[in-house]
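User: Let's play a game. I give you a shape written as tokens, and you guess the letters that built it. Ready? Here's round one.
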């Protein structure tokens, strides 16, 4: 491997400090390893996150930002604060991800005279899903305009899937002359997420994520209710926190579903691997534009087959009928049929789980993803590592 072209100062901007550790730590550590300086910028950093980043030689800077608000005055303060940070730090490269950091981080980089900016689109979100209602159509128009202003001079952009690539080009979110490179998600550490033996003969279904209706929980509840009415003793474990989002499942509904026996709510955990080890099939019946869902990659790496929908980014992650099943959005009958296939043939979970592990090692290993990113950002002449498909398979042999 060639040495880095030069020691550069790189700033990554996220909408939450913890997400920089949860989704970008491997990338930041790789950049540091190559001889560059990394600064993490976000609106919120707890003490544990700061300590983790500091332990890897990564500095932090806090910026005021409303992650989901639509107040122009607050967004202007975010832009001014980012310009100030960039002028003080004088980075060579800025890499923002998620909508507000992308828009205001890219614009601030241009104002501050940063030479290179590489926005990473991790999913366009609900504003770009289907035909929007009047208010959402207005917000979409504003978002498009802000992207076109903010991203006018970016160097290269990254995205996760074909649908995002098409829409970024269709709506002109970046100039037509700017390269748009597709990468296979955030990547997953396939040496950390390892398969374990199936927990028993009866299939155990698991959902991981925020408890939002747009994640398909109503559809999942209907599918489970239908299976139970047919005499199948099936319950789905829900792993994830309750949410303040207007789209969230309210506590009364969650308690009713639990009392009915449809779900067991496990709450939230900091390490999902023990929960995966007690599960045999992962279910994500989302209607959201998910990018490439990290939870799907984690489940596949742990040897679980996946049932998901044809929502952008989800269906592209697995091979239908090989590593899991892809069902139409908002189709509880199809979801129930996919779940039933594992109930009627329990050994199918182990077979498809092995295929899922092989796929994620081949396509989504974090070392391969990071190699693509640092290569396109000219931080090193990286050679893509060979996939380690066999890693951890012995654990379930």
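Assistant: Ready! My guess for every position:
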């Amino acid at each position: 491997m060639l040495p880095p072209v030069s020691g550069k100062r790189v700033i990554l901007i996220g909408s939450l400090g913890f997400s920089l550790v949860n989704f970008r730590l491997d990338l930041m550590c790789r950049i540091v390893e190559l001889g560059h300086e990394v600064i993490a910028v976000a609106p919120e950093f707890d003490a544990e996150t700061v300590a983790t980043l500091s332990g890897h030689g990564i500095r932090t800077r806090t910026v005021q930002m409303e992650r989901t608000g639509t107040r122009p005055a607050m967004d202007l303060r975010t832009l001014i604060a980012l310009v100030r940070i960039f002028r003080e730090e004088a980075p060579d490269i800025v890499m923002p991800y998620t909508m507000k950091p992308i828009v205001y981080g890219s614009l601030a980089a241009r104002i501050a005279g940063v030479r290179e900016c590489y926005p990473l689109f991790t999913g366009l979100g609900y504003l770009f899903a289907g035909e929007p209602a009047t208010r959402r159509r207005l917000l979409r128009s504003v978002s498009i305009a802000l992207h076109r202003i903010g991203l006018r001079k970016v160097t290269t952009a990254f995205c996760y899937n074909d649908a995002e690539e098409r829409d970024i080009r269709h709506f002109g979110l970046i100039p037509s002359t700017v390269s748009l490179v597709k990468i296979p998600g955030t990547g997953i550490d396939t040496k950390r997420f390892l398969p374990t033996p199936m927990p028993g003969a009866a299939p155990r279904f698991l959902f991981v994520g925020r408890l939002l209706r747009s994640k398909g929980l109503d559809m999942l509840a209907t599918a489970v209710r239908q299976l139970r009415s047919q005499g199948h003793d099936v319950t789905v474990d829900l792993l994830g926190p309750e949410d303040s989002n207007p789209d969230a499942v309210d506590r009364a509904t969650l308690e009713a579903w639990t009392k009915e026996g449809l779900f067991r709510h496990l709450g939230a955990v900091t390490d999902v691997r023990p929960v995966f080890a007690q599960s045999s099939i992962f279910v994500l019946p989302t209607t959201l534009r998910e990018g490439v869902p990290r939870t799907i990659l984690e489940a596949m790496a742990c040897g679980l087959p996946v049932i998901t929908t044809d929502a952008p980014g989800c269906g592209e992650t697995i091979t239908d009928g090989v590593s899991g099943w892809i069902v139409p959005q908002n189709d509880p009958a199809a979801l129930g049929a996919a779940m039933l296939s594992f109930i009627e043939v329990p050994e199918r979970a182990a077979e498809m789980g092995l295929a899922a592990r092989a796929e994620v090692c081949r396509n989504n290993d974090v070392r391969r993803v990071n190699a693509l990113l640092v290569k396109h950002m000219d931080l090193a002449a990286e050679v893509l590592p060979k996939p380690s498909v066999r890693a951890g398979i012995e654990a379930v042999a």
